[in-house]
Amino acid sequence: MAEDFPQQPTPRNAPENAPAPQQPAAKEGVNWLQELRGLALMLLGVLAFHSLIAKPFYIPSISMMPNLLVGDRLVVSKYPYGWNWSSISFHLLPRSTWHLFEHTPEYGDIVIVVPGNRTADLIKRVVARPGDRIAVINGRIRLNGTFVPRQVEPPVRILADDSLRCEGDAEPGHCYDGFEMFRTRLPSGKEVYELPTYRETLPNGASYDVIDYIDQELDNYPEIKVPEGHVFLMGDDRDRSADSRAPFETDVFGQPSGGLGGPVPLTNIGGRAEFITFSLDGTQTWNPLTWWKALREGRAFSSLRPPVDPAKAWK
Q1: With the C-alpha atoms ordered 198, 199, 201, 206, is the resulting torsion angle positive or negative?
Q2: Residue 188 contacts by C-beta under 8 Å, 6 or more apart in sequence?
Q3: What does the pLDDT average to over 44-66?
Q4: Residue pLDDT, tens place only, 134-167
Q5: So what's the pLDDT on residue 79?
Q6: Residues in a beta bridge with 75
């Protein structure tokens, strides 16, 4: 005999043939495979953007002063010169000579370069292009037999900051130790470095400021012809820049150091510096709340493309 089950009471005034009460649906578990797939696609998208369009860059040294300061954060575009192995962020590809949509940098461009003896990016300015004859004589660039015009400018003022440290400094001291002879106090009480400043104008009319303050070995470089597919790069701080004038070297631990070792292949150039996003003076910590106080005024969104005046072009 079948067992009788008690019937559920029917609510008063309930319509006939009313649907049975719905039971709560069972809770589904997390699909971890789908989550990981979404994360991987997101990371690939970021890598593709950094490699093909633009990436952030940080200035760790004074080699591009006065135009770039330690602590500047900037945007580097990846497409102006085409794409090569060094365009890929984090240098995931092996060093190679392939180049898609190759384009030669213009005079005065600030570029990101991966030297042939290391994997870290450096930042320098293009001062000679393929086929140019370049020499440096007593600190002056001679290009195709003509000295690059150099106009004396009022000394650039850099705020004295004894807490600022440059990346890779092996000795104690701050980034500006070499500028002490130019240290002065303003009527406001602020201490600054007033550095000897000059404005150079390249053959296409591009102009920019450089600082040059001591006599040193790199002030003279014998004339060479820049090979096809290469450019000659220099820092705007002419006395503290390991650039195309300086040979490849290794330190006491056998690690790569020194300069670029002459003209640089275009396949080692990974992009062009476009503008500064913001700049921190070195007083910040890992706590983001300290960044606001460390912000340098007047540097955000400053363009890094040199002004070009066709009237001053001389080639």
Answers
A1: positive
A2: none
A3: 92
A4: 999 999 999 999 999 999 999 999 988 877 878 7
A5: 95
A6: 56, 275
How confident is the model at residue 105, as a pLDDT?
Answer: 97
- By CB atoms closer than 10 A (0-12, 13-18, 19+), residue 226 is buried
Q: Cβ(182)–Cβ(194) under 8 Å? A: yes
pLDDT digits (tens, 9 = 90+) for 7-47: 555 555 555 565 656 666 556 677 888 888 889 999 999 88
In the block, residue with structure tokens 């994997």: 119
Both structure tokens of 314: 């001389």
Q: How many helices (H) and strands (E) does the chain have?
A: 2, 19
Cα gap 141→220, rounded to integer Å = 9
3-state class of 191 per DSSP?
strand
If we measure between CA atoms, which residue out of 156, 111, 115, 159 comes closest to residue 247?
Answer: 115
Coil/strand/helix, residue 221: strand
Distance from C-alpha of 3 to C-alpha of 20, rounded to nearest angstrom = 22
Task: Tell me the pTM.
Answer: 0.85
Which two three-digit tokens encode residue 22? Answer: 């719905």
Q: Using an 8 Å Cβ cutoff, are 176 and 237 in contact?
A: no
